[in-house]
Amino acid sequence: SQQGEEDPQALSIQEGENATMNCSYKTSINNLQWYRQNSGRGLVHLILIRSNEREKHSGRLRVTLDTSKKSSSLLITASRAADTASYFCATVDNAGNNRKLIWGLGTSLAVNP
Amino acid sequence: DGGITQSPKYLFRKEGQNVTLSCEQNLNHDAMYWYRQDPGQGLRLIYYSQIVNDFQKGDIAEGYSVSREKKESFPLTVTSAQKNPTAFYLCASRQAGNSPLHFGNGTRLTVT
């Protein structure tokens, strides 16, 4: 079952611009994770934010979490052509069920040089 | 380097044949997962295993089977009972708890 929904589905920007992707979910969560997938490859974990956290940073990535709105955003600053990929959010339910990583459909980001 | 290896990268089979996809990890992770990814869709869980000699069905287990005889290995068999087997298959692992997943680079299976 899918609960995360990313928007936009696709995003095209110029190198140097910022890219913002949003993720909404439906149930109470333990944590929310963002992953990146280059075309034809596996996913790579970017950031995990716990339900009691509101913001996390990692290099050029900034993730926010609003549990009252059941939403998260991923901001990539000063984008590069190498950031071109699909980005997925995934949530872990509040029971901390180890298997229940619920995936969104992803945002496809194209960064044009 | 520690990681997850999926092989082969591309696999072609005729309809009616069973096929086994390999997944090996040297991360010493207890939990392993198989996902299926179709164009425009998120990941769907096929099977998962939290410990050797134990595994559970995911959301779309019909037509698939797995084994977990060793901690490092979690092969997936796509049987002839799977009606739409053509897809991109991803294997992942993680340590116990809610730690992030580590993924292999996938196997693209085409059945004609």
What report would you give on this structure?
- The complex is a heterodimer of chains A (113) and B (112).
- Helices cover 0% and strands 58% of the residues of chain A.
- Chain A is mostly beta strands and 113 residues long.
- In chain A, the strands form two sheets. In chain A, strands 2, 4, 5, 9, 10 and 11 form a six-stranded mixed sheet that branches. In chain A, strands 1-3-8-7-6 form a five-stranded antiparallel sheet, with no helix packed on it.
- In chain A, strand 6 and strand 7 (61-66) form a beta hairpin.
- Chain A is globular and about 45 Å long.
- Chain B is mainly β and 112 residues long.
- Chain B has no helices and eleven strands.
- Chain B has strands spanning 4-7, 10-13, 19-25, 31-37, 43-51, 54-57, 64-66, 76-78, 87-94, 102-103, 107-111.
- Chain B is globular, with a radius of gyration of 13 Å.
- Chain B starts with a strand and ends with a strand.
- The relative contact order of chain B is 0.33.
- The model of chain B has no long low-confidence stretch (mean pLDDT 93).
- The chains are: A mainly beta (113), B mainly beta (112).
- Chain A binds chain B through residues 1-2, 4, 30-31, 33, 35, 40-45, 48, 88, 90, 92, 96, 98-99, 101, 103-106, and chain B through 4, 6, 31, 33, 40-45, 48, 50, 56, 58-59, 88, 90, 92, 96-98, 100-106, 108.
